[in-house]
Amino acid sequence: MRSLSDRLFWGFLVSLVVVVVGVGLWAARAATPSALPEYRSDQTRPENVVYNAYVAARRKDVDRFLAYFKGSPWGREGTIIGVSSYALDRGELRIGEVTVTGDRAVVQVLLVMPDIGPLLGPEVRVQTETVYLERVNGQWYIVTPLPFVYPEWKVAPPPVPRD
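Below the sequence we write its predicted structure tokens.
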């Protein structure tokens, strides 16, 4: 017959293993990227233009991504050869409040990401950012850099030294 301390030890050990496996499964599921979203067809709404720019970034469609912008809101000229959206792969993008005033619009975007809380419990972290748009000839264009997305610039080769 086992003593009480042996039963408590084994009960604690089994409980600990169950908790560790459960947290591991939750973290693995939270880190799994979801299927790529589809584009929204109604381009007359500023929130759809913002959403579609994120879809193009996730799909690595640089030409379509850049088509949603008016000029270069990044403050530099050059050729963008790629788009990095790794934060979007870890979380869920949500469109928040939309404010339209004449030919200007403000769209709130929220990135909801799974996180591990102070006691290893599941939590979510929400980061809210703002995107500004202008309407030109009936079409909405983004005029600020898109939060959570980073352009990859073509780097000019170094000058060739002359002898």
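Helices lie at 4-31, 46-58, 62-67, 86-90.
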